[in-house]
Amino acid sequence: MLFNSLVFAVFFAVVYGLYLGTMRRLRLQNAILLAASLLFYGWWDWRFLGLLLLSAVVDFWAGAVLDRRVGGEGAPDDAPFVHSMAKRKWILFVSMATNLGVLGFFKYWNFFIGSAADLLRALGMEPHLPVLHVILPVGISFYTFQTMSYTIDVYRGQLRAVPSFVDFLLFVSFFPQLVAGPIVRAADLLPQVQRPRTITREGVEEGAWLAFWGLFKKVFIADNVGKLAEYGFSDLSPGGGAALVGTYAFAVQIYCDFSGYTDIARGCAKAMGFDFLLNFRLPYFATDPSDFWRRWHMSLSTWLRDYLYIPLGGSRGGTWSTCRNLMLTMVLGGLWHGANWTFVAWGAFHGALLVAHRLWTAGRPAAGAGSAWSAWGKRLVMFHLVCVGWVFFRAETMGRAVGMLHEMVFACTMGDARWAALLFYSAPLVLMQCAQNATGDLGVVRRLPWPVRGVLFAVLWFLLTTMGDLSRGEFIYFQF
How many CA atoms does the CB half-sphere of 117 hold within 13 Å? Predict the structure, then answer.
């Protein structure tokens, strides 16, 4: 069930009507949301529900065991745990092994088998390794990370175990963010699941705008510039001009596609009284590599920071240990995106940028605000470095990625007619984000006088309905 489909519009209208009709009955309301979420996820393939339930059951059990304290269920937060540290570590291991085992099997089995086979062939052997034809369950990378964060937080004593399995399963499967995030932590979402929500006019209006703007970014911008990206990344594309257009087009496409999904998810949740964290904050306005990862896919970057980078040692062990931890975190973050060496290269590239930035700034005094020209110069450089990374992210093979970079450097021309199409479809995004950056207000549109908002909405609606591409369907991050 896709956000950009009539089926979802009908689904959400029915669910929202039932939701509003049960505002004073929290248990029934949560049961309705849970049933709707399981239906939403099972719409792709009912067999996927088994894996979702497996992760939920294991982590609910693990959380309950890890949080047992002397004094019983009502024990204070500082009460000692019943089980020894060794047993608690074993329970945590079971949770992690289950989630990572399921994720690794469905997402990475054939990748590692294929890589091992290539290595054996390079050594002169003829491997006969088992390749399995398995379907990658949608959203598996997102909900496994979400449930693992719950178990880890309970193990660390930072979160109490939730007593209701219905509440926990709703936290895991809540349909707005289930398939492509944001990755919402249990500490943020579970309290909202467990207490009555309030529907306000402001929340509904903000949610409606977020959902509409997200749909516009997906259908009008991302799906139209996606055609330019496909041409540029095709092996049949004629030279560096098309490769350059394709790279810029993909930079626009992936941002609008992914942030569009997030906006729709946040908008639907906002209309129901839930509040999801911000996942994107003008990432192409970043001035350095660290700044970019504070703005792009923020729920994943903070997850990697809290559950991988800091446990590895973070910045506590000196410069070179910090650089090692940064590189390892980014390589694994790249591999999280997909079973392909191009994603590993993308992660390593961003790791190298973070390491280089760390080494460059180590021991230097903090830079001042600088001039506006200096800030825009840094943004321009950082945007193009990010675009280099997108070449590896989007290319199907390492050979094609290297070939595109070679074409852009040594065979680039600016005469490709597709530049006009790219500028046309990207213009609404550029204008909107320049206004957001200038005002420092991501919700600047909602602060405009109502006649101006009305005209703006009418223009966007006209573009969406007359030139939006409703044929392209799935969001890019469904494959991750």
Answer: 12
Please state, in angstroms and rounded to a whole number, the distance separating the CA atoms of residues 414 and 416. 6
pLDDT digits (tens, 9 = 90+) for 378-400: 999 999 999 999 999 999 889 88
| Mean pLDDT across 42-58 | 89
CA separation (Å) from 454 to 216, 260, 458?
Answer: 16, 21, 6
Within its chain, how far is the Cα of 330 from the centroid?
15
Query: Which residues have a Cβ under 8 Å from the Cβ of 122 and sit 6 or more positions away?
Result: none
Residues 238, 113: Cα–Cα separation, whole Å: 35
Give the CA-trace dihedral at 15, 18, 19, 20, to 10 degrees: 130
Spell out the residues 6+ positions from residue 227 whose beta carbon is closer than 8 angstroms to its own: 469
- Where are the domains positioned within the chain? 33-197, 202-360+373-479
- pLDDT tens digits for 299-331? 999 999 999 999 999 888 788 899 999 999 999
Cα dihedral 118, 119, 122, 124, rounded to 10, equals: -100
Segment (H or E) for 234: none
Q: Is 88 in contact with 155 (CB distance < 8 Å)?
A: yes
CB 175 within 8 A of CB 83: no
Residue of 337, 350, 357, 406 marked active site: 337
Question: Tokens 């990572």, residue?
Answer: 100
The DSSP bridge partners found for residue 173 are: none
**What is each CA distance from 71 to 62, 63, 87, in whole angstroms?**
19, 17, 19
Count of residues making up the chain: 480
| Catalytic-residue membership of 83 | no
Question: How do residues 396-406 score in pLDDT, each as one tens digit?
Answer: 889 889 888 88
